[in-house]
Design goal:
Length: 483
């Protein structure tokens, strides 16, 4: 057996520093998350504070001249005290009269609390009430119960020491399924639709036919095998059409019908950029938001200066305090510079996109949207493709014709019969228009769609048509068929 020995090996590795990693993370953040990130930094770093003053043009020029400077390893007290580096990254985006105000938010009851409140109107003993609450706790936001009764019985026995049976649990489930809105507590779509149909106060002949279709021919209904349904249930075309119309008006996600505006978690879209036409020129600016102006606290800078003047008389605790303040000052200056660099990169990238798609941004005509990939903007800006990807991810721009994600403007290209480069987005729009104008009684197949596009000058294979159709969330021809 060979003996072990130590060797020295020299390698050249490329690694990201912690500051570079933090800069990458800041670059990926949209406006709302950046606001929260700055709030967290203000809480963690006492040296960093909000600048209550509005920076004038002179301060803006000072910031522009300081933007190219790197962070020194040693602290310059005069830089912190005299210049008081502060940063304004919404230059010329608002007037002096604008105020930064917080909008009060009222928290209402949740969907599950709404269901539990209804239990108080029912005659249930203590055990039945606990079982009903447990079932409600397992209902998802769509209103479905995704667990089997047997599994819940076992969990109650082990976790809550409550003994019950499948029969009792099934009976309580029926109680929960009787709550509002109809369809709550269903274990699948079929049961959800049946619960809603059976809960109708005045069921007519159409409702009875719809119940038969869902109960007996649900698989054929989902596959739109209408001929089989009519033959097996002895229905006419008119009967089937009326029953299907009744079914499609049901809610497949009953939990979504609970519309408490105070508690619904609808994510708000705050655009990161604003595009305006000023004197006939396209102008891009960063969006005004609740992101505050930042500066380094002069109090801590003065404290560091006082300690630095009396180094010989410093105690151990004072030296530790000096090191702490020094680290926080460096961190605060780096954070301000990182925010500045982030916004410079965002504006550089967005201006390149606007210049590349200049004709489109003038009037929003989608036919003028040119093929554009990340590499095109990387070549325009001199930035890396990964940087362009991070900038365009989760970012939005507000234009005079709507709000769009930056990813919307990127699309691949292909050549038409004349050899001209066209955007795949244009082809998708043509494909969508063809499908919208088709005869719904005889939908166009993918093979036929490929032939139609070829006649329009776009030679596309059938599998490519199927890919574009799926990206547009359009089902196959059989599932688009109507009676």
């Amino acid at each position: 057996m060979a003996g072990q020995r130590l060797t020295i090996q020299q390698k050249l590795l490329q690694k990201l520093s912690p500051q570079q990693i933090q800069m990458i993370k800041l670059l990926e953040l949209p406006a709302l998350q950046l606001e929260q990130r700055i709030k967290n930094e203000l809480e963690e770093n006492p040296v960093l504070e909000i600048d209550p003053r509005k920076n004038d043009d002179e301060n803006d020029r000072e910031q522009d001249s300081d933007s190219s400077e790197s962070i020194d390893n040693e602290i310059s007290i005069e830089d912190y005290i005299n210049n008081e580096p502060s940063y304004k990254y919404r230059t010329s985006n608002y007037s002096k009269d604008d105020k930064r105000e917080e909008i009060p938010f009222s928290i209402g009851s949740t969907f599950h609390e709404f269901l539990i409140e209804q239990l108080g109107l029912l005659r249930l003993n203590e055990k039945e009430h606990l079982l009903a609450e447990y079932i409600i706790g397992n209902i998802d936001e769509d209103g479905y119960l995704r667990r089997e009764v047997e599994a819940m019985v076992d969990d109650l026995a082990f976790s809550m020491n409550i003994e019950t049976s499948n029969e009792e649990m099934g009976r309580i489930l029926e109680v929960v399924q009787g709550l509002e809105p109809p369809g709550i507590g269903a274990r699948d779509l079929r049961e959800c639709l049946l619960l809603q149909l059976e809960r109708k106060d005045h069921k007519d002949v159409i409702d009875e036919k719809a119940i038969r279709i869902i109960r007996e021919q649900f698989d054929e209904f989902t596959r739109k095998h209408y001929d089989k349904i009519m033959a097996r249930l002895n229905l006419s075309v008119d009967d089937l059409r009326e029953a299907i119309e009744e079914i499609v008006h049901l809610n497949p996600k009953p939990g979504s019908s609970y519309s408490n505006p105070s508690s619904r978690a609808n994510p708000a879209i705050m655009p990161d950029f604003i595009l305006e036409i000023i004197n006939g020129q396209l102008t891009v600016s960063l969006t005004k938001s609740n992101v505050p102006d930042l500066r380094v606290s002069s109090t801590y800078a003065n404290m560091l200066k006082a300690y630095s003047e009396n180094r010989e008389k410093q105690s151990r605790d004072q030296k530790e305090a000096v090191m702490f303040v020094k680290q926080k000052l460096d961190s605060a200056k780096w954070f301000i510079d990182a925010i500045r660099q982030r916004h410079q990169t965002l504006l550089l990238t967005m201006n390149a996109i606007v210049n590349y798609q200049h004709e489109y941004f003038l009037d929003g005509d989608e036919s003028k949207l040119k093929p554009m990939i990340l590499k095109d903007i990387a070549n325009e800006t001199g930035l890396d493709i990964s940087t362009i990807s991070r900038v365009s991810n989760s970012k939005y721009i507000q234009t005079h014709f709507g709000i769009f994600p930056l990813k919307y403007f990127f699309s691949e290209s292909m050549q038409d019969e004349s050899g001209e480069e066209v955007s795949t987005r244009r082809i998708k729009n043509i494909l969508q228009d063809v499908i919208l104008s088709e005869n719904k009684h005889k939908p166009v197949t993918d093979d036929k769609l490929s032939e139609i596009l070829k006649e329009k000058g776009y030679p596309i294979a059938r599998r490519t048509v199927a890919k574009y159709r799926e990206q547009l969330n359009i089902p196959v021809a059989r599932l688009r068929k109507e009676l």
